[in-house]
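From the methods appendix. Each design record in this collection lists the tokenized structure first, followed by the designed amino acid sequence. Records were kept in a plain field format so they could be parsed without special tools. The example shown here is representative of the layout used throughout.

RECORD:
FOLD TOKENS (179 positions):
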């Protein structure tokens, strides 16, 4: 079977827009020598739900495109603390046990992502989605709901400074992606 080659021109049409998303962790690998967690994630709410699964299936990629690397060395302590706080706030009552990284599978987290251009080993220009920082899933939901809040006359203008009331422990959307 001939595989479709994932080219730069194809990628621009299907890029995940820069922004904040609610994601579900679908796999975790620990690298204790380099002191980081490799987290495979999927967008699980909103118009870009299951974005990476669609890319994976369409282009027959050999790797999962939604990846977040989180260091836990002494020099990354502050960022690791931010990651744990966002994770625990997104999954009420969950406390991460660092001895069992697989307990992160199925957990939700908010992620701020940005597209980044890079050059591969062959000098070809490519694009990847880079996680800029984690935040709570409820914070992402509140910000997204605020963006959707428009004036009553339907002219498409946002009401300044209006945050809608949302449940703190609202129902989480399920992503159809299997780990």
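DESIGN:
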């Amino acid at each position: 079977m001939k595989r479709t080659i994932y080219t730069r021109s194809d990628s621009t049409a299907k890029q995940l827009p820069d922004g904040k998303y609610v994601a579900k962790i679908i796999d975790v690998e620990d690298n204790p020598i380099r002191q980081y967690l490799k987290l495979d994630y999927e967008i699980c709410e909103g118009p870009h739900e299951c974005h990476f699964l669609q890319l994976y299936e369409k282009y027959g990629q050999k790797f999962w495109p939604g990846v977040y690397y989180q260091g836990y060395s002494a020099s990354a302590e502050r960022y690791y603390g931010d990651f744990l706080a966002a994770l625990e706030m997104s999954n009420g009552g969950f406390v991460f046990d660092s001895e069992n990284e697989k307990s992160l599978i199925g957990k939700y987290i908010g992620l701020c992502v940005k597209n980044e251009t890079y050059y591969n080993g062959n000098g070809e220009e490519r694009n990847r989605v880079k996680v800029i920082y984690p935040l709570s899933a409820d914070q992402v939901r509140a910000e997204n709901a605020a963006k959707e809040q428009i004036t009553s006359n339907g002219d498409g203008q946002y009401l300044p400074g209006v945050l809608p009331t949302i449940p703190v422990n609202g129902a989480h959307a399920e992503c159809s992606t299997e780990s």
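APPENDIX NOTE: Confidence is low (pLDDT under 50) at residues 1-13, 150-179.
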